[in-house]
Design goal:
Layout lengths: L3 E9 L1 H4 L8 H16 L3 E6 L2 H9 L7 H25 L4 E6 L1 H5 L1 H16 L3 E6 L6 H4 L9 H11 L1 E8 L20 E2 L4 H5 L13 H13 L3 E6 L5 H6 L6 E3 L7
Parallel strand pairs: 1-2, 1-5, 2-4, 3-4, 5-7, 6-8
Antiparallel strand pairs: 7-8
Helix pairs in contact: 2-4, 3-4, 8-10
């Protein structure tokens, strides 16, 4: 199956949607809704993969960081309501409809569920609706507690969704400007790598560990996501989520952040 040339997946992480105190950043929600609505108005089919449920839920419930699994799942359930309320509110300001899709690993692994999921995505996109995707953390505990998680703060989930939907581009909004030759948080002289043709061992050795304190997906999981998506032909761009307007330049083909070039192009 070829790629849909006008289909784009945007992944936004917890650090983009929350402020330094862990509370919802309303301006980020608004800017994101504005840009994604504008891109859809340009003729693109847009899918949003969004993290943030556990962090927002913890803040709303005044839970501490080191809580039990059941508290994290409760926080995910409460936080998911909050972030969907905000998305619905801000996208409605731009006359857009959204839909919620919650996934866990078996939804992708079971062929019948996978087919039903693909049909749902396609139908929503045909209707001009923007799907908002997240992990189903309140049901599946494995994604929360595992050290080697399948989705990793939705980085891998966004790649899986991009492949599943045949998206031409996957844009991963991070808390830094792209993929560097060393960690810019500790090495001021680090240089941004603007284009990666092939993800090899040398590239993987440059990836660090965990990301910001509010998110769980570091550059390692983003690189794994890029490797999965580019193997199926999807271009992957990693850039800073605090400037979602860069998406306009991305769809125009202008250099933004780091571009991981898709291997086998569709038709």
């Amino acid at each position: 199956m070829g790629l849909y040339q006008n289909r784009i997946v945007i992944k936004v992480g917890t650090s983009t949607l929350t402020n330094e105190w862990g509370k919802s950043d309303f301006r980020s929600f608004d800017r994101l809704a504005c840009v994604l609505s504008g891109v859809q108005n340009m003729g693109y089919e847009v899918i949003l993969v969004s993290s943030g449920a556990i962090a927002v839920g913890k803040n709303k419930l005044n839970l501490q960081a080191a809580e039990s699994m059941r508290h994290k799942q409760a926080a995910a359930a409460v936080g998911q309501c909050s972030i969907m309320f905000l998305y619905d509110k801000f996208f409605d300001d731009y006359d857009k409809h959204i839909a919620q899709i919650l996934l866990n690993a078996e939804d992708i692994e079971m062929e019948e569920k996978k087919e039903n999921l693909t049909n749902t995505f396609n139908t929503l996109l045909e209707m001009g609706i923007i799907p908002v995707v997240n992990e189903n953390d309140s049901v599946s505990y494995t994604e929360i507690e595992s050290e080697d998680r399948l989705f990793g703060d939705n980085d891998m989930l966004s790649a899986v969704v991009a492949v599943l939907c045949g998206a031409e581009k996957l844009v991963i909004f991070s808390d830094i400007d792209g993929f560097y030759d060393s960690d810019p948080r500790f090495h001021p002289e680090a240089k941004l790598i603007q284009r990666v043709e092939r993800i090899d061992e040398e590239t993987e050795s440059l990836a660090g560990g965990a990301g910001s304190r509010r998110g769980t997906g570091g550059m390692k999981t983003k690189l794994q996501a890029a490797k999965l998506a580019t193997a199926q032909g999807t271009d992957v761009i990693i850039t800073n989520g605090k400037n979602p307007s860069s998406l306009y330049d991305i769809v125009k083909g202008l250099p933004v952040g780091t571009l991981f070039v898709g291997g086998k192009k569709g038709y």
